[in-house]
Every structure is written in C-alpha cells, then in structure tokens.
Amino acid sequence: MSTTIDRPTLTSIPHVVGGARVEAEGRTGAVFNPATGEQTGVVALASADFVHEAARTAQQAQRGWRETGLGKRQQVMFRLREIVSTRAEELARIITAEHGKTVPDALGEVARGLENVEFCTSLMHHLKGEYSEQVASGVDVHQVRQPIGVVACITPFNFPAMVPLWMVTTAIAAGNAVILKPSERDPSAAVWIAEAFAEAGLPDGILNVVHGDKEAVDAILDDEIIRAVSFVGSTPVAKYIYTRAAENGKRVQALGGAKNHMIVMPDADLDAAADAAISAGYGSAGERCMAVSVVVAVGDVADELVEKIAERMPQVTVGDGTQPGIEMGPLITRDALERVTGFVAGATGEGGRVVVDGRDLDVPTGGFFIGPSLVDDVAPGMRVYDEEIFGPVLSVVRVDAYDDAVALINANRYANGTAVFTRDGKTARQFEFDIEVGMVGVNVPIPVPIGAFSFGGWKDSLFGDTHMYGPEAFNFYTRRKVVTTRWPEASESQISLGFPTH
Description:
The protein is of the alpha/beta class. 37% of the residues lie in helices and 23% in strands.
C-alpha cells in the first residue's frame, strides 16, 4: 500500500511585460522561504531572446510616455505613493516570505522606498531646464532634460522593494521605460510593484519585470535598445556589469559591496555605541550593504566595549520574521548560511577570538538560521576582515589612536559607509574631513541619506560617477540638450566661414 504525501502547491512567479503577466515557458528557478527552508515558488528565468523582445516592447511604449505631460506623470507618482503607503504591510509580508527579514524591518524598507517616490512627485522641479537670453546679438540659448529611452534596473535580494523604488520611480518620472531584473531569490516584490504602478495609471510597457540569472543579465548588457544600466550588488558583479555595459556604449551606475567600519573613541558613550553596534551589525541578519561589520575600538575602550556588546547579544531574538517579537530572521539561502558559518569557523585559526559564536545559539531548525557572532582581535589580512561577509558577524579591531583608525578605514578597498562615535565635536569634524568614504555618520551607525540626497560610496563600492536616487538619479536618467536660437531678418543673412564667437 502506497502513501501519498501532500506537498504545498508552488506559486508561479511570472514576468510582467507590456502590462501582461507572462508565465514561464522554459527554464525556471526555485524560490524558498528562508525561515523554513522549504521551496514555495517557481520563478521564470528569461532567455536572451525574451529579454530582447521585452526591450522592444519597452521601446515602443516609451515613445508615448515621453510625450506624456509632466503633470500626468506627476499624478501617477502621487497615486503610486498612496497605493504603496496604504498597502505597505501587504508588500512587507511578501518581502518577509521570500527574504526572511522581519515584518517590521520590511516595513522600514518600504518606508525608505517611499521617500524616493515622494521625491519624484516633484518631478516638474527636478526636470526644469535653463535659459539664457541674448548670449550674443539676437541669440538665445536654452537647455532641456530629455529621457534616455529604455533603461535597465538590476536589483539585489537584500532590498527587494526599496532598491526597485529607488531606481525605477526616478527613471519613469524622467520619461524612460524600464526593464526591471530583480533578484531571482526573492522576485515577488518586483511583480507587486509593477502591478501597483499599473493601478496608479502607468501605461502598459513602461515598467517591465524580467526575471532571470546571468543569461538575462548578459542580454541586458548587450541589447542595443537598452541605453543605461543601474545595478546594486556585490563588487565583482558590479565591476563586470560596469565593464561590459560601458564597452557597449551604455551609461552605467553600478553599486558594489562594503566593509563598513564604526570607530568608537575613548570619550564615546559606550552604552550608546554598544547599542548601535548591535542594531547596525545584526539588523536584517547583516544582509545590508550599510551594515556595520567592523567596530574599531580606539585606545583603552576595547575590553569594556566588547563586554557591553556581548552582554546585549542574548537579547537578540532569532526566528521566523513573521512572528511577533522576533528581531532577526534567517539568511536568504542555504549557500549564504554555509558561507557565513565558514567565516566564523575560520576566525580562530586566523588569530581572532570568537567571543560569541552564532553557531552555538538555540536557533530554529529547518530554515537558514545562524545567531549573531562577535569576533575580537581581528586585523587586516584575516579573511573575516578582508571580505564582505554579508551576515551577522561583527568584528572588533583594536587600534591605539584616532589616526590609526582613520588610516585603517582609508586603506580599505571598500568605501560605502562609516561612522564615528564621540562626544567631541572637533574629533567628529576632523573625521568628516579625513575619511575617504561616501557616506559618513556621526553617532549614527547606518548613515543612509534621506530621499532628498543621494546614496553611494567610493572606491570599489561604486563603479561609475553617479549615486543612487535623489538629485543625482535625475541626472543619470536624463540627457541634456542645448538649443541655440536666432531669428534674423532676411536682409541680415550672409556667408561667414569663420568660427562663431559672438
């Protein structure tokens, strides 16, 4: 007698092209619930031909969108803001189900994405041109901003709603059509966003969601219709995308990885610094490009600071992010769990001292869980220091003086975010001046700029010269055209082969 085992029906996660859901016809990928380790969905993986067809659809739609008045575009942004704001918890639960972060953390992600939607509601202001009258006798000059055409946005798994809202909202407000390629690990939020845009009145074909892996990415980088590529992810992939897209004549912004340091000065409030280290190091299981991964203890504060951090760590509740009271969820995949576990396992052999071992904590089984870890006596040259871990592992580096801390950070190849904890204004001001990092916090551990500024690092944390969202994003998604006009009388016409000077 055979026994039938009931298995849950897997959700099919479609592409969205030309306003229509397109189910998988070829290759597919598995989507998991990281809290249980079970497969919950099947996502379509686009072929190169599918990407090219989606780009042609976007190109046809963009012609009409470019001609759409700015007032109508603005109304779409206002309606989108209302939809996302009203249904934020629905989107947050979709994020949690596929990424694993807690629902409150996912709600925070949605709120930060909404900041950029709100910024884009002022698109009439951001797209204003310039005008100069009488630059020469009877000659006027004006400059306008025009959309690029079709752009691609390749977004990461760690912020499946926020980063798409940072990218696609600005691109669309500027008059472009978009191919959005979200992470295949947690793709459903991108489909939700596309449908929210449609409900807000965005014409079909302006926002197209194309799922896929490297085959789809390479097709995007090579497609002649796609004029610009925006990317957030690891540094090796960012460098690859920047190089290949630029070789094909595309405009590129590619944000890479990070190794964010937090300096704690001898005069700092150590309780506040320990709270900040816990919050910034272990939030979202460390899967943030702005997470603090290295605490730099200056002078004689290290022993007390390490003790204060360690005594707070048992208070971090680890579990299914959908449950009340949970503060840290699982990692995104089993591969990620094995990688992070490897860093902790190898730290002692490199000379580090594992103060708290996340592998030993009582965490749920079945999912991709590891508890928060703390490693002391870390130094450059150790793998746990040199590489981006992207997990809940906090390292402590001990230095003698402020200058040593600054030199340590400035020598690092990553330069995304950093922070200093001090009570001394002169030290804080000097830190702002000395440090070679794109985003700086003073007694703020995760210095992500508000929506009216722009996000991005330096060195190997950014390839290209344009940061994400805010004012710089409108520069990235538009081209400037300068028009010189003169309306002479017929009698003034004459031949002149000289170079015009006035």
